[in-house]
Amino acid sequence: xxxxxxxxxxxxxxxxxxxxxxxxxxxxxxxxxxxxxxxxxxxxxxxxxxxxxxxxxxxxxxxxxxxxxxxxxxxxxxxxxxxx
Amino acid sequence: xxxxxxxxxxxxxxxxxxxxxxxxxxxxxxxxxxxxxxxxxxxxxxxxxxxxxxxxxxxxxxxxxxxxxxxxxxxxxxxxxxxx
Lengths: 84, 84
What we know:
Two copies of one chain form a homodimer. The first copy, chain A, has two helices and three strands, in the order E-H-E-H-E. Chain A is of the alpha+beta class. Chain A has one domain: Mth169, Chain: A, CATH 3.30.1280. At the A-B interface, strand 1, helix 1, strand 2 and helix 2 of A face strand 1, helix 1, strand 2 and helix 2 of B.
């Protein structure tokens, strides 16, 4: 069993209204040190596989087919074995 | 200038309908290897600070005051210096 940590982020050129809203919230709380916020998704997925390479290939396909929108988003992931 | 990567996750005991929906989507695409999905938030925040300790203290306070809901969410973060 493997645990995949998947990070989905907007591409740098894509407008990020959620990030801008969070930045506005931080500034209104007095955090003037914050200069930019980009918001993304973080997913933890348990994958049933016998080998790391198999788990990684599965997660790559998941990202391409469902988890990220390739037009506006990029993704990266780490796969770690879960020791039961 | 520092870049903070903030991960906000639901506590393990909290129900996660978004994660369940993503798991259902994966299964309907044929990814039977996926056994659990937990959805969280991933934020990249640029913080203007002269020292790492100062940046980390700022990010800790941001998490407590705005970014995470301490009743249902946990958070962790990494702070790296941006070399301009």
